[in-house]
Amino acid sequence: MDTSSSLKALILGLIEGATEFLPVSSTGHLIFFGDLIRFDEVYSEVFDVAIQSGALLAVILYYRRDFIDLVTFRNRNLLRSLIIAFFPIGIFGLLFGKFILENLFDTLFVGLAFIMGALLMLHVEFLHRHEKQRVESIQNISKNNALKIGLIQTLALIPGFSRSGAAIIGGMYFGLNRSTAANFSFLLAVPVILTATIYSLYLKFEEVNLENIQVFVVGFFTSFLSAFLVIKFLISYLKSHSLIVFAVYRILAGILIIFLAP
């Protein structure tokens, strides 16, 4: 592994961890910055997905008490809600994952998805102002709402839309307050990221070998560190702030990506 590859992996790992849980699309940022720094290795697509496992470890550690309750079946209501919400993206991902990897990882699609997600954020924030009764705990998410959130989350299969953004938007559309929607989004990230990582490695495992494994290790650890810090920040931020700043950022970033991407 040369120094250039190490530096690029470090940069992309930091970007992945910082953007995986912010509603701004980690995939979109990886595609844009990957093009910008010319990270065009044959394994670049599987690298982008695989380093999400660093962010996955961060959310598991941050919510370790919740996950202990889940795996020991002490919180069956939340476990049921997570399974139901995961089901739509799991099915759609299996059906269309290969097509998406081969055809939609393009800066034009990413830029448009950034803007589309921003418009939905602005719309849900407008609706949020007029609704006083909100679900304030992930323990109280109904099976019906979990399914609806899961269906909205399938939009995240479009590179640039943002998985966390889709789940937070879906949660707010169907009665959750911002911080509860974010908490549910983070927990829901585990089955989604884990499945996406395994599926991507299955499709392109031959691209991972001993010569480039160190690149993946660097990306993994930098992604883990930045993701852990971002989770703490976003939960605190959304308790008293709206999504509008992220919507504005997404619109500006989307325009930049469309017109200035390499």
How would you describe what is shown here?
It contains 12 helices and no strands. With 262 residues, it is mostly helical. It has one domain. Helix 1 runs antiparallel to helix 2 (26-36) and helix 4 (52-62) packs across helix 11 (213-238). It is globular, with a radius of gyration of 18 Å. The model has no long low-confidence stretch (mean pLDDT 87).
Using brief descriptors, characterize the structure shown.
mainly alpha; globular; 75% helix; 262 residues
Task: Describe the SSE topology.
Elements: H1 3-20, H2 26-36, H3 44-50, H4 52-62, H5 64-71, H6 76-103, H7 107-128, H8 143-153, H9 163-173, H10 178-204, H11 213-238, H12 244-260
Helix pairs in contact: 1-2, 1-11, 2-7, 3-10, 4-10, 4-11, 6-8, 6-10, 7-9, 7-12, 8-9, 9-10, 10-11
Quick structural gist:
With 262 residues, this protein is an all-alpha fold. It has one domain (3-260). It contains twelve helices and no strands.
